[in-house]
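Section 5: illustrative case.
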């Protein structure tokens, strides 16, 4: 017999870890809610007839967010044979709230008392037998992480599926129970409905989503209203609060009956949090941690690897041998140029940054796995809230440090549409792995590898997100109270090598695959456009390429960027190719600048060429402005696609792209123009005036007080 087992539980209770352990698959395990936004299916290892479904985390069955709806709809309409209710045993009180509701669904339930390793380590004891009796279902102690209790859990599920019956043991107050059975008997569609009790409770709570579609018979709605109003009057409270109160009373009673805590005081985790999330220390600690991460990955360890790959591997070994080989077999100069200048130069330049990416993601994965990144969302919530933003918005942004696409999808955790849209717009500001090569290139080409450039870019991105959030929230399009943000802070634990290595490997693999496919194809096109004139005459890389197709197109657009300090055709073309993938920017610059020397084996290496040629093209300020523009401007096509899907509206997709363009242009303009004045590199002129006006407009949008009634601002216009 085939059975379907659904994993339901609060975010962070370990559902995905359990799913991976049971099925042997490798779904992303994250330390924050919103990682699993869609349900995933798999079969138990060595048991093809047992299906496991991993659902997004939920706090209750009265869903408010898109992912919560996914879970509730699945449980109610698809009717799994058994539900495994994942309960984080180290946080049992909060987790049982959902349990009381799951028990009402009329589907057999087995409770996995997960994270039992944490409970045991603390020395706490939970009386399983008593708990089973109070809840009326089987309880199995598990640790998804350590592989404890998995076999037993599946066996209990199979037994429960056979019995096909689950009677809720938890009873409400006698008058509530009376009201419920009265509702059940007065509504015809609830007769013989296995979910009758659940629906009766929802009708008593006046659950909006249920009421929308619920079919009453004639006169039944009025009867239910009378029953509800009578109860509400007796309790002097509304239906929903009565039910919620009852649940908490029940849970409090069960917990005091079954859980024996060893220490009532603070755990080590709490002690660490006293410092790490301290009101005053939290931000400096976060800044220091990120500084260190970028220092290690971009400026020291990662760079040694990158230098070797760039200078030796793709600078000497590969091109020299390839040149000798191609000359040996008598290839034409053109084909040789395509392979060496184009493909090796372009793809090699991107692959060169792999060591830095690996070190960076190794550090970030460790921070995430031990539980630190979850604290960042919590700390950011405190800051965001001051500005009317919700910390919920910061989680997709944190996910976006890998790649914006899952970050943008992760916004589904945000129930409020306005906040969700606002978050989608700013998520791609976060430097994703593809932007790391740009940051590293700018650092090396213009700042002599100074260690502070990369962290500066990172914090500028966060500042850009906060500033954009405030500006957008002050317009009528996004105004509204910030969404509440509840989040379990997981206990700190030693990083699991399996998780860390898997994350890092996934990122590195995606990076290499992209280099071998999209970047490779784009590079060939770039080489072509750069090697031919409009009349399709071949020009060698040793000649001046400004007369090539690429040079001509780039030169036509370049003046647009002159006020930002990079009005040359090379960075212009590179910026546009960044739409394909952000790494392409570096690849394009490498093809453009690297060609001149490498037919001569004794010349400077390819990477040296990229650095010195590009480095000589702009001032340091122009280089920084170029970096900032590319941090904030429109993301790659893949991310634009994700924006379009999640916005589900051409108008909002357009708005997002327009905002990103206007914002990036405005910020770079202000940085370059005002920076040039301060550094004495320019005299006061028309563009200085424009930059000052733009800066004043931005400050106005940022600091004005928002008055919802009178606001007539359209932000797209206001930012110009
Ligand atoms: P989900 O949100 O319910 O899918 O939770 P995840 O599976 O993503 O896990 C959240 C965090 O809890 C991860 O850091 C896991 O490594 C950790 N975790 C999961 N199960 C256990 C467990 O049994 N013991 C401990 N100590 N940690 C666990
Ligand atoms: Mg999950």
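Designed sequence:
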């Amino acid at each position: 017999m085939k059975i379907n087992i659904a994993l339901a539980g609060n975010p962070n209770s370990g559902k995905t870890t359990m799913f991976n352990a049971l099925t042997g698959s490798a779904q992303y395990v994250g330390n924050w809610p919103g990682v699993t936004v869609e349900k995933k299916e798999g079969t138990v290892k060595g048991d093809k007839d047992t299906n496991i479904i991993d659902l997004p985390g939920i706090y209750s069955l009265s869903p408010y967010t898109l992912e919560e709806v996914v879970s509730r709809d699945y449980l109610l309409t698809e009717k799994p044979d058994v539900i495994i209710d994942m309960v984080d045993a180290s946080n049992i009180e909060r987790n049982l709230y959902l349990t009381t509701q799951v028990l009402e669904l009329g589907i057999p339930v087995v409770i996995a008392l997960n994270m039992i390793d944490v409970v045991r380590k603390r020395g706490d004891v939970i009386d399983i037998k008593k708990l089973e009796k109070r809840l009326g279902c089987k309880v199995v102690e598990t640790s998804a992480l350590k592989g404890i209790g998995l076999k037993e859990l599946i066996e209990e599920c199979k037994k429960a599926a056979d019995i096909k019956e689950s009677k809720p043991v938890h009873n409400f107050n006698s008058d509530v129970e009376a009201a419920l059975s009265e509702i059940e008997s007065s509504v015809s569609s609830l007769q013989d409905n296995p979910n009758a009790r659940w629906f009766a409770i929802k009708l008593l709570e006046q659950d909006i989503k249920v009421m929308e579609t619920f079919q009453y018979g004639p006169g039944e709605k009025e009867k239910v209203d009378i029953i509800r109003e009578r109860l509400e009057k007796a309790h002097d409270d509304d239906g929903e609060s009565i039910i919620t109160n009852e649940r908490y009373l029940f849970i409090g009673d069960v917990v005091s009956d079954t859980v024996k805590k060893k220490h009532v005081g603070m755990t080590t985790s709490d002690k660490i949090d006293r410092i790490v999330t301290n009101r005053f220390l939290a931000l400096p600690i976060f800044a220091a941690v990120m500084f260190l991460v970028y220092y290690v990955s971009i400026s020291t360890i990662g760079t040694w690897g990158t230098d070797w790959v760039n200078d030796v591997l793709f600078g000497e070994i590969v091109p020299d041998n390839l040149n000798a080989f191609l000359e040996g077999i008598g290839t034409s100069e053109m084909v040789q140029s395509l392979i060496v200048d184009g493909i090796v130069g372009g793809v090699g330049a991107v692959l060169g940054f792999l060591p830095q990416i690996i070190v960076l993601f190794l550090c970030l994965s460790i921070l995430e796995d031990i539980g630190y990144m979850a604290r960042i969302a919590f700390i950011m919530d405190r800051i965001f809230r001051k500005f009317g933003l919700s910390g919920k918005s910061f989680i997709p942004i944190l996910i976006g440090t890998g790649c914006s696409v899952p970050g943008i999808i992760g916004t589904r955790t945000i129930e409020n549409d306005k906040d969700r849209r606002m978050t989608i717009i700013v998520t791609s500001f976060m430097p994703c792995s593809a932007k790391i090569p740009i940051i590293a290139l700018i650092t090396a080409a213009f700042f002599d590898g100074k260690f502070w450039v990369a962290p500066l870019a990172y914090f500028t991105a966060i500042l850009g997100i906060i500033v954009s959030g405030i500006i957008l929230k002050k317009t009528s399009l996004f105004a509204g109270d910030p969404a509440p943000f509840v989040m379990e802070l997981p206990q700190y634990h030693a990083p699991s090598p399996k998780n860390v290595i898997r994350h890092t490997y996934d990122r590195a693999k995606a990076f290499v695959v992209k280099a071998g496919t999209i970047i490779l194809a784009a590079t060939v096109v770039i080489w072509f456009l750069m090697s031919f004139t409009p009349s399709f005459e071949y020009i060698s890389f040793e000649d001046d390429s400004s007369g090539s197709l690429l040079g001509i197109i780039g030169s036509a657009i370049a003046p647009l960027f002159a006020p930002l300090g990079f009005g040359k055709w090379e960075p212009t073309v590179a910026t546009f190719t960044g739409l394909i993938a952000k790494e392409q920017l570096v690849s394009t610059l490498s093809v453009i600048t690297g060609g001149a020397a490498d037919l001569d084996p004794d010349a400077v290496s390819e990477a040296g060429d990229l650095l010195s040629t590009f480095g000589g093209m702009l001032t340091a300020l122009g280089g920084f402005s170029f970096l900032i523009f590319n941090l904030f401007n429109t993301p790659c096509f893949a991310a634009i696609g994700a924006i379009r899907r999640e916005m589900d509206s051409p108008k909002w997709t357009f708005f997002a792209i327009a905002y990103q363009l206007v914002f990036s242009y405005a910020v770079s303009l202000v940085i370059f123009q005002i920076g040039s004045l301060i550094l004495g590199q320019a005299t006061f002129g028309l563009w200085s005036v424009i930059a000052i006006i733009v800066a004043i407009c931005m400050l106005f949008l940022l600091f004005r007080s928002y008055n919802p009634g009178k606001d007539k601002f359209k932000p797209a216009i206001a930012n110009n």
